[in-house]
């Protein structure tokens, strides 16, 4: 099968159902706001129910019509695939099939390799990698059936280049790139497209927490890289 090398048509957001994991703060919250401003229906997924409800109120200020809905679901996307699958089914029953899934759930731990607790490596792989695998796996079949859909993986510049102090974090973000490239090959014939975002250091609550452990001078050195 040969697929032409063409870019997909832009997804029309008015009326679209957009799911954002890690949507209660940071990049996820900002993406949800921007989609809502363009008329999308939003499902926010995160662990903290109180933060979700606060974010819901903030997003609703940007409505462009009285039909828009912001649905909040409190669940850990890295723990139990069946639970993730069930809550996404509920979301689709309320707001229709998922047109775009944005995987923003993530966390970080910094430190020298030998100083990082072993369970931190496991936890970061669960949250940053499986936390994107599970929601994507839950919506991909419907996207292929409808022959339309977008899945976004939020990686990091540390997912393109291994950085000092990020031995627990960088591999989880590299893994998203491998997943995205392999998955795109499978779903492109169905008009489903995968995007990987590689944001740099971003002013978010998560980055503020991460910065508390950046005590080694090498963390703050500038690295010039040609892409």
UniProtKB/TrEMBL annotation:
Keywords: Coiled coil, Endoplasmic reticulum, Lipid metabolism, NADP, Oxidoreductase, Sphingolipid metabolism. Residues 45-94 form a coiled coil. GO terms for molecular function: 3-dehydrosphinganine reductase activity. It catalyses: sphinganine + NADP(+) = 3-oxosphinganine + NADPH + H(+). InterPro entries: KDSR-like (IPR045022), NAD(P)-bd_dom_sf (IPR036291), SDR_fam (IPR002347). Its main location: endoplasmic reticulum. Pathway: Lipid metabolism; sphingolipid metabolism; Sphingolipid metabolism. Its EC number is 1.1.1.102. It is found in: Endoplasmic reticulum. Gene3D superfamilies: NAD(P)-binding Rossmann-like Domain. This is 3-dehydrosphinganine reductase. It comes from Malurus cyaneus samueli. The lineage of its organism: Eukaryota, Metazoa, Chordata, Craniata, Vertebrata.
